[in-house]
Write a structure and sequence with these properties.
With 266 residues, the chain is of the alpha/beta class. It is 44% helix and 17% strand. The protein has 11 helices and 9 strands. The strands form 3 sheets. The protein has a 5-stranded parallel sheet with strand order 2-5-8-1-9, with helices on both faces.
């Protein structure tokens, strides 16, 4: 059963569970802030499965996944990486933002994800690590429009035949998610206005009129600030508006105008 705080509004949790039961690795696709990580962690918790997580970037190296040799007391030892630990332990291996990883890292990962579920440790005298029964991999990726992302090689993509897409939820669903995380202190017109603003900014970002699309984390933060007594317009400026100064004054003023049109001069 899913945790009381999680709302499986589009059936993604159920789909992930069915993929796991069928032994099919899953790929969760969607923009930042749509709840991909929450989905994976909720799935593992609902099944009572241990979870190891690796967040990928240009700085992620093979050693993070597989392990590295170290010098201890004058002797060379091998310290296992997170992928090896997960394979030995079983449970869920969560590969976050997989399409931000470098090619050499993906190549090594591909070896562990093929049908044999084995990894040869050239770093440790050629030992072969076989995954524990039931070991399961879930990866998440961001759209290619996100900075630092790239296309996954077809061979690696084929390792994840179950593909689950997450988008931002409808306004009424997002309001319910926000209430579950922020409590009832922010509600009614103020909450509706914050979600409407977030949706407008996301729509503008989708057509490249703005550089950034706010996540559900930000609507939750907005609700918490309003619940703490901050005026709705000021909370909107703090959470949604000021970040656009990063892309220059024109961008910042554009969003400030949108906030004024929705919240007035309060």
């Amino acid at each position: 059963m899913a945790g009381a705080g999680y709302l499986d509004w589009n059936g993604s949790l159920e789909a992930l569970g069915r993929a796991h039961d069928a032994g099919i690795f899953a790929l969760v696709i969607g923009p930042k802030g749509t709840g991909k990580t929450t989905l994976v962690r909720e799935f593992a918790a609902s099944r009572g499965l241990p979870i190891e997580s690796a967040n990928f970037s240009l700085r992620t190296r093979e050693g993070h996944l597989v392990g590295t040799k170290t010098l201890e007391g004058g002797s060379v030892a091998f310290t296992e990486g997170i992928l090896v630990r997960s394979m030995r332990r079983g449970g869920v291996m969560y590969l976050d933002e997989l399409n931000a990883a470098e090619a050499d890292v993906l190549l090594r990962l591909d070896e562990a994800l093929d049908d044999r579920r084995e990894l040869v440790l050239k770093e440790s005298a050629g030992e072969t690590v076989a995954a524990a029964d039931g070991w399961y991999a879930v990866a998440t990726i961001n759209p290619l429009s996100h900075a630092g992302t790239k296309e996954l090689p077809p061979q690696l993509l084929s390792r994840f035949p179950a593909r689950i897409r997450l988008e931002y939820p409808p306004a009424e669903t997002e309001a319910e998610i926000v209430r579950r995380h922020a409590g009832a202190a922010c509600g009614g017109a103020d909450l509706e206005a914050g979600i409407r603003l977030a949706d407008a900014l996301r729509g503008a970002a989708a057509v490249e009129e703005l550089a950034y699309a706010p996540s559900m984390r930000e609507t939750i933060a907005y609700a918490r600030l309003v619940g703490a007594g901050l005026a709705a317009r000021e909370a909107a400026t703090t959470v949604f508006g000021n970040v656009y100064a990063q892309w220059g004054e024109i961008e910042h003023k554009k969003v400030a105008g949108i906030i004024t049109s929705m919240f007035g001069g309060q």
